[in-house]
Amino acid sequence: MNQVDVTVIGGGPCGLFAVFYAGLRGMSVRLIDSLPELGGQLMALYPEKYVYDMPGFPKVLAKDLANNLAEQALQFNPEVILEETAETLVKTEDGYVIITASGRELPTKTIIISAGIGAFTPTRIGVAREEDLVGKGIFYGVKSKAEFAGKAVTIVGGGDSAFDWALNLEDVAGPMTLVHRRDVFKAHEDSVEKVRGSRVDFKLFYTVKELHGWEKLEGITLEHTTTKETHYHPTDAVVVNIGFKSSLGPLMDWGLDISKNQIQVDSKYETNLPGIFAVGDVCNFQEKLKLIATGVGEAATAVCFAKTRLDPTAKLYPGHSSDRDK
Length: 326
Ligand SMILES: Cc1cc2nc3c(=O)[nH]c(=O)nc-3n(C[C@H](O)[C@H](O)[C@H](O)COP(=O)(O)OP(=O)(O)OC[C@H]3O[C@@H](n4cnc5c(N)ncnc54)[C@H](O)[C@@H]3O)c2cc1C
Fold this sequence. Notes:
Blueprint lengths: L3 E6 L3 H12 L4 E5 L7 H4 L5 E2 L8 E2 H13 L4 E4 L3 E7 L2 E6 L4 E9 L5 E4 L15 E2 L13 E4 L3 H10 L6 E5 L8 H8 L4 E4 L1 E7 L6 E6 L5 E5 L2 E4 L3 E4 L10 E2 L2 E3 L11 E3 L4 E2 L7 H19 L16
Parallel strand pairs: 1-2, 1-8, 2-5, 8-21, 10-17, 11-12, 11-17, 12-13, 20-22
Antiparallel strand pairs: 3-4, 6-7, 7-8, 9-18, 14-15, 15-16, 19-20
Helix pairs in contact: 1-3, 1-6, 4-5
Flavin-adenine dinucleotide binds next to helix 1, strand 2, helix 2, strand 9 and helix 6.
């Protein structure tokens, strides 16, 4: 992989704004996130909730805010690596190499850590051979709807993501089933009503007990939560949406000054490791506020200091973005 000016770890709101701002300042950027989609907590934890404290938006759905931030971030063509966790840090002569959980080596001159409350990993169903079938019928998100075209799809979960994917895949997938262990859903009422009125078949009070198929998934055994009755359910794909676990995990071993799961930064949002900045929920300083509105400001500031670190002739002050069209 080529060496970039800045690598942003974490594609939540603050990381996305850092990616945008670095692009605006003419820097080459790489973004890494452990999740299959961008947006961080906005998409993973509360996509259907309204956010009321964004400048310029009297109210905005978290998922719409995330999508707009992503669109803004991607306009300068950053390299985006999803479903990869930044795991190991190696110091080099002119920067760092980040090694991901799958062993990819990503050289970079500077780093902005916007890891929020840590790397999210999707909660597993917890059945035998689940890991073997990941990507061969077991999915924890949907990267491309085309992958599910004409296939029998089973969605597991009762939250917003499960219902969103049920609605999203309805026009491309073959037979669709939604499996949930209760008849009460965390998902927004409106989405539940829409899925109830669709062709999606509900299997309530069921859990997935067994996976069938060797090279690829062919079917699952469903078990009733109270009667324990089981039956075989043929399916090509299971999309699991039963939550996330988060952990700062690997970043704890990078030699950063961390206390109470937060990285200490100075007034430039730089950590104790030169050229490594931290912004958003993951960073700490006196009077820190964990809010998106303040976190994106931290991201813009950190980018400007990273810029002047790489190019001492560059101005710290970026100028007005509205002057770009002159
Ligand atoms: C229910 C709820 C409601 C909220 N409402 C509001 C609100 O109304 N207004 C407001 O301002 N704030 C609100 N917040 C808080 C707000 O969502 C957070 O402050 C914000 O998401 C922090 O953004 P971030 O970019 O710092 O981190 P996050 O959004 O946490 O994103 C961090 C990203 O980093 C990734 N990551 C972490 N470690 C690694 C690694 N090692 N490798 C690769 N990727 C990694 C994670 O997968 C994640 O995608 C709310 C939070 C919750 C839970």
